[in-house]
Amino acid sequence: MQELSPVADKTQKSAILSPIAIIGALFFIFGFVTWLNSVLVPYLKIACQLNNLESYLVASAFYIAYLVMAAPSAWVLKVFGFKKGMAIGLLIMSVGAVIFIPAALTRTYVFFLAGLFVQGAGLSILQTASNPYVVVLGPVESAARRISIMGICNKFAGAIAPIALGSVALKNVDQLKITLATLSPAAKIPLLNELASRVIVPYICIMAALIVLAVLIYFSTLPEINTEKEDESTALANTNKTSIFQFPHLLLGVLALFLYVGAEVLSADSIIGYGSSQHILLSTAKFFATCTMICMIVGYFVGIFCIPKYISQNAALVVSAILGFIFSVLAVVTEGYVSVFCIALLGLANALMWPALWPLALNGLGKFTKTGASLLVMGIAGGAVIPLLYGHLIDVFTARTAYVILLPIYLFILYYAAWGHKVRR
């Protein structure tokens, strides 16, 4: 895999910083779009009159696109290159935002899910391009630090997004729920239609922002990178490798990332609804997703200042997995605000997992990097599966008990951090 080593002269330093700034803007945009789902889950549950399992199809429709689009994403980047590929991904996302308009006008849940799927499809291209970009733009030992910086951009947007959309979509929704409970099905329709229409203006603004950013990326000075070129040691190690499936540390990394994304999405997308299940008003609970994002931002700052100076990438992953397990146990055995706070603290535990998993999984892939990255992007489909299983468990047990699904997830991530990433045969 081609690396751009850090250099002393200012010209080359600015050549690295400029692409990082551009990629940071991308991470902010798709962070904003992604973490709107934490509001959409409880919002659409009311607007479209859904049960718990159905409401978590919001996350499933969005993240299953990563699985479906993994191979097409690699093809797009191979044909058009990284820069043009990212512009294409942004335009696809804008189409998904447009679909929200007829979805809101007709209050049709399938249309909402279609819009989310298309947005996820565009994001899969962006993720496939941007994450290896950050890994390549500098030494591999500090890749987690650079991805942590991107994570701050992503989660800062994630902290803003639920408040921004929640202030519109969930305005006076607690009183609305009380009113709806007293009305006949026919009498509910006008109120539900008004509620559904609240997302039209926000998604028109999102569409416009995505189109503008796509144009800016297309005409930017963002350089192309060549991941087909291997250094001498990597090329020698991969002499007998003919398939991506000959890298078991990558395959285990894909599974670890699948589980991690599922846990991260679950902790962020469920916390508002979970707060409501703990008898906390939605007018208050709508801020809980922001608390999760703030915890993640704190974790990313830890990564920036500590990796690799004080702690290695895999050691950070070990600590993160242990914290995730502890906070999950505490969330299940406590109640009310304490339990909700433990779910928010999962943001701290999850923060360094993404930055650490990517470089560990991509290490030594050389010319297989693009294909490896596309497989890792497929792992993001964990966000489609784990929350849906959680939604089913809520209907069977309780919202609090259902969080036991997190325990085996963090145990496997702990295994990968300690031993799995070393497997080479």
Describe the protein in words.
By secondary structure, the protein is mainly alpha-helical. It has one domain (10-219, 241-422): Growth Hormone, Chain: A (Up-down Bundle), CATH 1.20.1250.20. It contains 20 helices and no strands. The protein has helices at residues 10-34, 37-47, 52-55, 57-68, 70-106, 109-136, 143-169, 173-180, 185-196, 200-218, 232-237, 248-277, 282-285, 288-306, 313-333, 336-350, 353-362, 369-379, 382-396, 406-418.
Measured distance between first and last alpha carbons = 20 Å
Under the CATH scheme, the architecture is: Up-down Bundle
What Rg is obtained from the alpha carbons, in whole angstroms? 21 Å
Number of strands: 0
How many domain modules? 1
What is the chain-wise order of helices and strands? HHHHHHHHHHHHHHHHHHHH
Enumerate the spans where pLDDT stays under 50 for 5 or more consecutive residues.
1-16
In short:
This protein is mostly helical. It is 77% helix and 0% strand.
Question: What descriptive keywords fit this protein?
Answer:
425 residues; mainly alpha; Growth Hormone, Chain: A; 20 helices; 77% helix
Summarize the topology.
Elements: H1 10-34, H2 37-47, H3 52-55, H4 57-68, H5 70-106, H6 109-136, H7 143-169, H8 173-180, H9 185-196, H10 200-218, H11 232-237, H12 248-277, H13 282-285, H14 288-306, H15 313-333, H16 336-350, H17 353-362, H18 369-379, H19 382-396, H20 406-418
Helix pairs in contact: 1-6, 1-7, 1-10, 2-7, 2-12, 4-6, 4-19, 5-6, 5-10, 5-18, 6-7, 6-18, 7-14, 7-17, 12-14, 12-16, 12-17, 12-18, 12-19, 12-20, 14-16, 15-16, 15-17, 15-20
